[in-house]
Amino acid sequence: MAIQPPRGTRDFMPAVMIRREYLIEMIRAVFRDYGFQPMETPAFESWELLSKKGGGGEAVKDEIYYFKDKAYREMGLRFDLTVPLARVVVANPQFPKPFKCYQIGKVWRYDRPQAGRFREFWQTDADIVGSQSMDCEAECLALAVNVLSQLGFRKFKVRLNDRKILNGVMEVAGIGKKMEADVFRVLDKLEKIGPGEVKKELGRIIPPRKARTIMDAIGKSGSPSSMLRDSPGIESSTVADEGMNELRDLVGKCKTYGIGKYLEIDFSMVRGLEYYTGPIFEIFIESERNVGSVGGGGRYDNLVELYGGKWTPAVGISLGIERIYDIMESEGMFDQPKTRTEVFVVAVDDSVRKDAIMVAQELRAKFANVETDLMGRDMKKQLAYVNAQGIPFAVFVGPAELKKGRFTVRDMKSGKEAGLGLVQMAKRFGKG
Amino acid sequence: MAIQPPRGTRDFMPAVMIRREYLIEMIRAVFRDYGFQPMETPAFESWELLSKKGGGGEAVKDEIYYFKDKAYREMGLRFDLTVPLARVVVANPQFPKPFKCYQIGKVWRYDRPQAGRFREFWQTDADIVGSQSMDCEAECLALAVNVLSQLGFRKFKVRLNDRKILNGVMEVAGIGKKMEADVFRVLDKLEKIGPGEVKKELGRIIPPRKARTIMDAIGKSGSPSSMLRDSPGIESSTVADEGMNELRDLVGKCKTYGIGKYLEIDFSMVRGLEYYTGPIFEIFIESERNVGSVGGGGRYDNLVELYGGKWTPAVGISLGIERIYDIMESEGMFDQPKTRTEVFVVAVDDSVRKDAIMVAQELRAKFANVETDLMGRDMKKQLAYVNAQGIPFAVFVGPAELKKGRFTVRDMKSGKEAGLGLVQMAKRFGKG
Q1: First to last CA, chain A
Q2: Which chain B positions have a beta carbon within 8 Å of A9's beta carbon?
Q3: Residue B13 burial (CB count, 10 A)
Q4: How many Cβ pairs within 8 Å bridge chains A and B?
Q5: What is the pTM for the complete model shown?
Q6: CB nearest A32 (choices: B34, B258, B369)
Q7: What is the ipTM of this complex?
Q8: Each residue of A1-30: pLDDT tens digit?
Q9: Residue from the list A6, A17, A75 with its beta carbon closest to the beta carbon of B46
Q10: Domain A14-43+78-330, what fold?
Q11: Which residue ranges does chain B devote to CATH 3.40.50.800?
């Protein structure tokens, strides 16, 4: 029998989970700081819903976990948290606007598993539904900057672009609506395969002259101040012009939020998912491990309408746990212990086993994280377990200690000992 | 297009999610108090693994979400958190024992949806792997009592039984191994259909005389002191005797843990899942809403071996979020606000919009949960939103306030106002 988890999925053991929990709890805390409210949807959705995302259709079936339930309903595991959110908004038109919500949960994609790419992974999303103002984009980005800063990152960039600028470029280059998705799919590979290869691939699906026009227009990135002065080559497009104005507005608002220095404009940035309609963004951490973007998002004003709701503007940002974790791990940024247990209560002999349990219960009542022996082990073996687990403190309960009402507390790292009563111990280790 | 979640699943909107988060965070905190470490496994597992649970086989296929992935691997969404844990233990024999871990996550069962019964729901499990001592059972039960007490429950019962006693009863009644599972399945309905119906149903699959023997032996429940004195009708079974001794040992240990008063022995209690080998338990809350057990568990010493590992004793307890939530909701035990936002920063006119954002950012930096206008609304409409959302405080930012460096803070419930500077506000609302 296979004892490994299914291909592309992972088990998370305690030492890793403690770090993942820290990461998720930190992100959740910042979501709350910004006034986002929690929301949750099922792991699977109807195939009808999942397949409707911009131009996806049957092709989506190859990229997701698709199945029929026992009533032959077509279903799929969700591949993101935005599509379910759009369904919820359609189903609940009564929510006061803006509807600000966060979602933290697993999503599934049937990708080829490779380094840093999994079939099951966690996403943490914050969305603002109901407002057309660039304040929303700025707030989502401020939130992301805040998360990364609080996690200890110093060097990262927020890359901005606007779907309207990309659409304008298509217009100027004379690419019809039908070809757009294909062109964007090639452009999306820029980071991976470089401009030379992209141009070549474009040349295979559109005339080389058009490919050149596109590459000239988008082949630039830099600081907002230099990039937003003018948009060379696409002045003739009204929609691109609109996009430029959106970015100018957004950059100004980001400055108010105190995050101007992180911004970079990159006209070549296309985001994979096709539901975006305005500003799009991706967040990159500068690190030895080049893991690509650790998060991104954008404006998707038409998605709710696509699912049958009233036209509803919306913006969202998604932060990926897996890549952030990888960078923090490889840069030694975690300082979580490998166990959450703070204290092990040692029964020094068999006569005091009950007392050891009672001491443990006392400390737990004060919200200290406590273990005690569950194996009938002698003192030596109990201490071996304490060391194997990396539990930082041992409290010794023995007949003499019980008589005095003071217990020896040993710092397992330094070996230093102190005699403490129950009340002092509860204060020392307790959280409440 | 269907805008409802798939049959048997649910969307959780913010007001409900805030309560669910509270519930889950409380349970997690108690798991940590008891020295359990976090663990996580994938949402789906191989069909081979899922079907192997005691006597399940093909029948399991009807009760779970079964599918083939694109490489024709047979898969299923997990139906509990214990089977994946057993796989993890097989895959990681090196873990120091006892291995104490908790899991909090979704599981899926293809049941007929009905009141309080869903196809997707959360479980919170704590397990102790590697010890045969009844200390483990006692600790799991103390943990459950602790969770319920901290959530505010006063009246609840822990019902105990032991698989060995049930096996002894089968032995005495002359029920062969092959029939046992069928008999247990009927006994499991006792609470639902009553002893008369159970006897009738048993009579259909075994001789009435045997049915009577069984019903006489198990038709008793009561306090440990009365129930453990002797086990009428099953003295002749060594295995039942062993079960009685386990329960005596366990009851004694529970007293040390301070939870003796919650115990009740019920010889008729069978738990649905078939991997248990020793003590089993279920937790019942006394409430108007008779929702059945809110949690349970037991000893499953053979499961790791069944999956190809070394024989490894283990005990676990599982608490169900859904039923606990339902009771707390119907008894008015939640006092969570309907929004997590504490403060809304009001821009009194358009000239101070940037300043309002900066004030909001200052408060967020101190870990207060803050919203500000994202819709370009006037003051009146901003306050309408504050009221619609139930945000408890509004901070007014206007030209005069900015000049003074003091802002009017309004308690939205009482209408009381106070003038506070930024530092005071941060202290008032901040968490850090």
Answers
A1: 46
A2: 42-44
A3: 19
A4: 252
A5: 0.94
A6: B369
A7: 0.93
A8: 789 999 999 999 999 999 999 999 999 999
A9: A6
A10: BirA Bifunctional Protein; domain 2 (3.30.930)
A11: 343-429
